Amino acid sequence: LGVAGDHRGSSLSPSRLRPFGGDPLTNGLQHGVSASLMEPKHEARKKPSRAGEFEETRELVELSAEVRPAEQSGAYVLAMMLKFEDRMNRELTGQFTDDESPEALSDELVEYGFVRPRDHHRLVDLIGQAMALCRQSQATVDEIS
């Protein structure tokens, strides 16, 4: 995964992630679709991350992901719904390429403060399962064609 503007291409960095049906996120603090994430009570629970933004501290209690082919050849769209312990939801979408691993995608989500580091392994498993389902459905379609 590359950082937005990086020569490496696709990324799940804040400028590439979007709320479902929304515009690209432009403010590093607005990583989710809920305005209440900006309330001071949440800011006090975050600390600086490696990317210079904020590190998430809330535990994930529910998460789901879907991977589907993007309109561009060789690219995919990852759509995720994350529910935190305080019942706040974060819905994200972003593009990635076939050569990017679940570990790399999860690393980037942690690095940019979308999820806490302790939930990294859960994201790796979830993204890996979603990628496998997408590839399986593509193989089925290819066999039928």
Automatic annotation (TrEMBL):
Top-level taxon of origin: Eukaryota
Biased composition (Low complexity): 10-19
Region (Disordered): 1-55
Protein name as annotated: Uncharacterized protein
Native source organism of the sequence: Trichinella nativa
